[in-house]
Records
---
Amino acid sequence: MKEGDLPYILEIENVSFPNPWHEMTFRGEIYNQPISSPYVIVFKPQKKVIGYLVFWQIKERIQINNIAIHPDFRRMGIAEAVLHQVLSKIRGAGTKFVTLEVRPSNVAARSLYHKLGFDVLGIKENYYHNPPEPALVMGKKL
Ligand SMILES: CC(C)(COP(=O)(O)OP(=O)(O)OC[C@H]1O[C@@H](n2cnc3c(N)ncnc32)[C@H](O)[C@@H]1OP(=O)(O)O)[C@@H](O)C(=O)NCCC(=O)NCCS
């Protein structure tokens, strides 16, 4: 992820979440490397940013903080393929556990994580706003 990617990222972010991240948050992730690992997913034929993934390395654990795919490119197996690739890379680098938070109402994301072998570990009450919702904490041993 580079600063030049931000307009494309924000376009996807704003149609993907009721409470989208602001540009400054993405900028912070870019500056906070290597603690943060912000990546874009590029559709090579058009050199177009069609998604992104942000995760944090916290000792032997990674926390996936954001992932989204452009609506025109969903249900093509892209998020699944990218997460497979990232999980196998970080497993090779010694990471033992991966966690994330998800809205219970986010059926697409929950199905994706379930398919990838994540389990529900717990609930964080009053986690999301607009609309208010708890968060499911999901995790997977690598
Ligand atoms: C969640 C998201 C990243 C999935 O990306 P994607 O590239 O469309 O997902 P994939 O095509 O790789 O799907 C892999 C699996 O996820 C599940 N899945 C994906 N979209 C789904 C949907 N709309 N409904 C139900 N299951 C879905 C399915 O199990 C699917 O496997 P299948 O196609 O064999 O049924 C995408 O819907 C998105 O960007 N949503 C908005 C942002 C978001 O909610 N991010 C997650 C925050 S926690």
---
Amino acid sequence: MPDYTLIRSDRKTLALEIDRTGALIVRAPRRLSRAAVDRFVESRSAWIAEKQRLQQVRASAVTPAGGWDAAVWYRGRQYPVLRRQVRQPAFTDEALMIPEGWTAQRLRAFLKEECRRLVAVRLPVLSARTGLCPTGFHVTEAQTRWGSCSGKNSLNFAWRLVFCPPEIMDYVMLHELCHIRHKNHSAAFWALVAQFDPDYAAHRAWLREHAALMELF
Ligand SMILES: [Zn+2]
């Protein structure tokens, strides 16, 4: 049974909440017995574990106490951000070096442009492999989905894809390319995705587990 903090009030129902530190808070009616609360918590233990895991990813994803420029996610890894006397930002194996005067907005714009560059390089390769040709693509501010495909077969990708590992970016691009043929999530659609990305289920799971990346920056 997970540890929890119990908060009683005049409410009529039980509710669970995971706070920013990953701690479980249970809100309960004043008179409900502790045993009933325990049974409820026990019955939701799988849900709680999943939420706490997500919160952990979120916590490690959000820039540490040092502020927005302490570390950034890029291609599935976190890089400490170092301010140096450089003209252009540059990744080393260990860190991202940025010019000393850069603001959060500059860094964000750089990462968004990186996403555009990476998609521009990779999308034609995947298009050639699948024989599915988009009319173009845009990198967007979307925070509810990683990609989409318009009725005119123009593809949209959330710029925060730049945080994800290369194989995850590939999966999202393949997914949207497959929507050129199937404008739905039918069995035929998923069969087509599987043909080009046999590990797509694992890639979808990775995105679910890292949903918090959507809220960074
Ligand atoms: Zn889709």
